[in-house]
């Protein structure tokens, strides 16, 4: 998540605005999500949140609401799957019959 510059000024100057993770934990919980971890960052993004939602619709609703309220300048969503699902997805890719071919496929 990347914050607007004026939001960062607010966090610097107002100690009640600094714990953004608490704000986002509540927003996640409002959609029956489960916060797993929150990290501060610097550079391209200011914060990283790892959380689960009951379904894609809840995730989308959470993001639409936080975007509409201006809680961040922008965010990037990266769906994660566990290692077993990752391995199973590779097997599925191998075993699925398709006519799709990359321009460089042999």
Number of contiguous helices: 4
Structural class: alpha+beta
Radius of gyration: 18 Å
What percent of residues are in strands? 5-15%
Cα-to-Cα separation, first versus last residue: 40 Å
Number of strands: 2
Biggest sheet strand order reads 1-2
What kind of assembly state do the chains in view correspond to? single chain
> Helix coverage percent of residues?
40-55%
| Low-confidence segments | none
What is the approximate shape? elongated
The biggest beta sheet is recorded as: 2 strands, antiparallel
Give the structure's gist in a few sentences.
This protein has 106 residues and is of the alpha+beta class.
Descriptive notes:
The chain is built from four helices and two strands; from the N terminus they run H-H-E-E-H-H. The chain has a domain at 5-78. It has a two-stranded antiparallel ribbon. It has helices at residues 5-13, 20-30, 56-68, 83-95; strands at residues 34-40, 47-52. Strand 1 and strand 2 form a beta hairpin. By secondary structure, the protein is an alpha+beta fold.
Furnish the topology, listing elements before pairings:
Layout: H1 5-13, H2 20-30, E1 34-40, E2 47-52, H3 56-68, H4 83-95
What are the key terms here?
43% helix; two-stranded antiparallel ribbon; alpha+beta; single chain; elongated
